[in-house]
Design goal:
It contains 18 helices and 21 strands. By secondary structure, it is of the alpha+beta class. The protein has 2 domains: 267 residues, no CATH class; 215 residues, Serum Albumin, Chain A, Domain 1. Strands 1-20-19-15-14-9-8 form a 7-stranded antiparallel β-sheet. Strands 7-4-3-11-10-2-21 form a 7-stranded antiparallel β-sheet, covered by helices on one side. A 3-stranded mixed β-sheet has the order 16-17-18, with helices on one face. Strand 16 and strand 17 form a beta hairpin. The longest helix has 21 residues. The two termini are 29 Å apart.
Length: 537
């Protein structure tokens, strides 16, 4: 897309892009988007709206996030981009030696062992305190109301809720899972589409977080309940771990891609993977989006970036290779030189030698927020603190038990993190927030959204509607069923192990809000693969 077209996107979508001037909130659930919009109309800014929507999403989409998860944010405020890392650390009692002594050879997915310190409540409080116009009690009020009065399940939400309930009946055996079943499978089954669900425990906890600015969660009565629950069932997390946590304001990292700056949160998040892939392709020209050469180069760049990411990304102070080295022009050129006509099996290079919910919010004053939070793997660990509605995350599963790996488990360390918010600027001005939730699909979705926008001139809705791919491992790549058949065949001829699927849920769920810097007009797109919604006025 040339600079003259930079903010005039051709219509090429199954749904209309949304335009507005005063404010916009894009989320995967209409009720959460409406909660954020209501806060804007009450005099809140984009940060207040994002916090309101985030809290509401813990109620209306518990299949992907919860109060006991982590969060990251990119905030554009007063012509400056700020980054917030609210991912929690491993408990002090959790170590490789402790797990080995207990006979654990791989960190489990479920139960209390993989539970790390939740950062989401602290993120809400920190964002509200630093940038918000309203009180935390005001911004969390819509979420409290939804939890207390209940809401009818949307179709895609009901699908994944039911799928989880069926799967967990086999995987989750033990007393520590009883509360999850009580809260999320009332009457012994998952609620269905259109059926009401509410949680008074969830409502009371949100009220307590709001009234104490999250202090109760980290040093008060909620922390006591979490500590007691963990001790009772052999978990490692303690109140002292919660007391030691504080969200970290970080400097966002970026690459220049064809006249734009693409921004991500620095490690321990995997946003670096998206930047490395884009850095490899920034000097390439692509004839068309639906072209097998375009797909091939995207996939090859992404797999090379992932090979490096899986080897090096962890909490930044523990990385053996620096972010600067991994994003250097020289290293990008070296990695780009490996991309040929045939599919390759990726290996990490050496630069020293050379589920989730995502939301976007914007207000009429130019403030914008890219926000993401997650429990990981759907409902997370399966452990819910009794009487609170707090579903705990299982991020510890991503740690390595190899002491020589950069991402090796250590007490107090933050693990490699999948959730990443994105942001786009041009010439120092905000274009807007974007993101694609969904495990290791996220940097792949970021790359595809940015290229859809910049290389192929798609508007936000068309960008999200377009067919997607996901590299899995080795030469294996999964294509969405809407990818043209001739492209699938051509990729297979190049040596890619191609699989087509109708399961669109595996390709992530995104939101985009772009702003025209000349007029201030906002244009938003929301995910067609879920119950997505853009609320605007």
């Amino acid at each position: 897309m040339n600079t003259d077209q930079a903010h005039t996107y051709p219509y090429a979508s199954t749904r209309n892009v949304t335009f507005a001037k005063n404010g916009m909130v894009a989320t995967s659930q209409p009720l959460a988007a409406q909660a954020g919009l209501d806060i804007l109309k009450q005099g809140g800014n984009a940060v207040d709206a994002a916090v309101a929507a985030a809290a509401a999403l813990t109620v209306v989409e518990p299949t992907s996030n919860g109060i006991g998860g982590d969060a990251f944010a990119l905030v554009w405020m007063k012509d400056e981009l700020h980054g917030l890392n609210a991912s929690g650390q491993a408990p002090e009692k959790l170590s490789i030696e402790t797990l080995k002594a207990a006979g654990v050879e791989e960190i489990p997915k479920f139960g209390l062992t993989p539970v790390t310190v939740p950062g989401a409540p602290a993120a809400w409080a920190e964002l509200s305190e630093k940038f918000g116009k309203l009180t935390l009690e005001e911004t969390l009020a819509p979420a409290v109301k939804l939890a207390r009065e209940g809401f009818p399940l949307s179709p895609t939400l009901a699908k994944y809720w039911n799928k989880a309930a069926v799967a967990y009946q086999k995987a989750w055996q033990g007393e520590e899972f009883n509360e999850w079943y009580r809260i999320f499978t009332p009457d012994g089954k998952a609620p269905q589409a259109g059926e009401m669900w509410h949680s008074e425990d969830h409502a009371r906890t949100l009220e307590e977080i709001a009234s104490t600015k999250a202090a109760s969660f980290y040093s008060g009565s909620l922390a006591d309940k979490l500590d007691s629950f963990s001790r009772k069932h052999g978990g490692y997390i303690r109140k002292s771990d919660l007391e030691a946590f504080k969200p970290e304001w970080v400097k966002p990292i970026s690459v220049r891609y064809k006249g734009y700056d693409v921004w991500e949160i620095p490690p321990n998040g995997q946003g670096l993977v998206a930047l490395m892939a884009l850095n490899m392709l920034k000097d390439d020209s692509f004839a068309a989006r639906e072209d097998e050469a375009t797909y091939h180069h995207q996939i090859e760049a992404m797999k090379l970036a992932f090979a490096d990411g899986e080897t090096y990304i962890t909490e930044e102070k523990h990385m053996s290779r620096s972010v600067e080295a991994l994003l250097s022009k020289e290293y990008a050129a070296e990695r780009r030189s490996l991309i040929g006509d045939e599919a390759l099996t990726p290996e990490a290079g050496d630069p020293s030698a050379s589920g989730t919910v995502y939301l976007a919010a914007a207000d009429g004053d130019g403030n914008m927020v890219s926000f993401i939070q997650s429990n990981y793997m759907g409902f997370g660990s399966g452990a819910v603190v009794p009487g609170t509605g707090i579903a705990l995350q299982n991020r510890g599963h991503n740690f390595s038990l190899d002491p020589n790996h950069d991402n090796a488990l250590q007490p107090g360390k933050k693990t490699f993190h999948t959730i990443i918010p994105g942001f786009l600027t041009k010439n120092g001005e905000a274009i807007g927030p974007f993101g694609v939730m969904g495990g290791f699909m996220q940097p792949q979705g970021h790359m595809q959204m940015i290229m859809n926008t910049i290389d192929f001139g798609l508007n936000p809705q068309a960008s999200l509607d377009a067919p997607r791919w996901q590299w899995m491992s080795g030469k294996k790549v999964v294509l969405e069923h809407s990818v043209p058949n001739h492209i699938a065949q051509a990729l297979a001829a190049r040596g890619h192990e191609v699989q087509l699927t109708h399961d669109s849920g595996m390709f992530g769920r995104g939101q985009i809000i772009w702003k025209d810097p000349k007029t201030g007009v906002l244009q938003g797109g929301t995910e067609p693969r879920t119950d997505g919604s853009v609320a605007a006025y």
